[in-house]
# Entry
Amino acid sequence: MQQSLSENNKELVKFSNVSKRYRELLALDHISFTINKGDIFGYIGPNGAGKTTTIKILVGLIKDYEGEVYIRGKKITKNLNGLQEVLGYHPQDVGFQEWRTVDHLLKTFGYLSGLNSVDLESNIQEALNFVNLQDVRYKKIIHLSGGMIQKLRLAQALLIKPEILVLDEPLSGLDPFSRYQLKNLIKTLSKEGKTILFSSHILSDVQDIANKIGILNNGKIMKIGTPDELQNEFQVGNLIEIEYANSAEHCIGIENIPNIESIKHVNPNRDLIHLKSNEDLDLSIYNILKIITEQKCRIHNFKLLKPSLEDVYLKYVGGEIKRV
Amino acid sequence: MIILWIGIPLLSFLLHFIPNTEDFPITSLVAILIASIGGTLAAAMLSTSIASEKSRHVYDLFLIRPVRRRNILLAKFFAVYFCLIIATGISLILGLIVDGLTIGILPEYVLVQTSESLFISLAGMAISCSIGMLFGILVSSVPVAAILSVYLGNQLTALSILPTVFLNFINPILFALIIGILIPTFILTISIMTFNRRQF
# Structure
């Protein structure tokens, strides 16, 4: 098993039947998933779903669990067996020793990670430039704002130039501008080839960044897939939405197109109709557009209705959702 | 550290001017003061900082790096303990200077008593520090850790060094060396084992 995993270079992280129990509470219930090289894996679920527990197992902070976890095909045992250099970890609510300066903190972490002083200096500069904290390098941590602290968490994760970045709720508690900045930084890291696992309980964050999503609820993985796969799996039928410019200019004869099974005036005030097509959706679209063009109907919007990620999330998580 | 390095030597110096103590060597006074105040301060400092850092998950970012958990604790212990040694050194040197200026050349028995006090102080401080560390690891609440290390820690330390006062046949320096190594080693071992088993 280990050999086959290591042969597959694409598979960087693999959780296989992992369970974790805190006394009576089953925090993780036989979860399995893989993260491939280059993925931005959005790990989403409500508070207490088990996201942080999963992440702590991955970075080696929790050692007492059932199941197997592989990094680069190598099974994690009690110690990470030198895999620390592959992982950069951005914890959720970790505090820093506030009497340290940013420089002192990063140097301490750098030395503990085994960097020599030459590499450390260039890595510190690079990490601070990346998160735009170079101006506060010699400031004490106690004087930094919440947004800066969050960036510092990312900077320390980048210090060793890891292949895999594990970000636990990296955007929580930030103001909108800082969120925007940090999202862009995460996207940039992905473009640079980093593989990223990030957790969030905020749907819009995942939607904006991730190319693969895992939905976790009550310690169980409910669904994993790309955003498109998750949306497509949710069957709502072949629905086409047309929003007319005004009620006086509805096209005549659309309801008579043979492929259209039903028509529904969703919101008469907005001149919004939903057309349900049979399986030959392409032909339905062709016929509808033909009528619209021939009759020169003025429309505001024409689109195929797909379930939103919110619908998918709500289906699996059962209603707890936070939109930003 | 400023309290230890400046406050205690200053306090010792000021106590020298209390009426009827002028003839009492300041160096002896310093050794006693360092053991009680320094040890208590260090124990409280260690226990509260560990309890607080634990609750704020400060150690998460240390523990994910290729460093042994015991090294984190030992580094903390020795950092504080060496600060105490420096404070002791500063205080004693200051005491010797003051005594040299006021009393003149110190009689040999005073120097012997002072060095005995010094060893007992260093042993007491090592015990206090290790107790402070243990309470910091065992207790989650910062105030509880502080109270336990100040009161219980102080009593336990005093209890450990009491034989040097009441048992005349004991060589105080040898006894201080033995308990100053054995007791902190034992307590630190328990602390490290507890810290190793802890889930973060």
About this structure: Chain A has two domains: 11-226, 239-306.
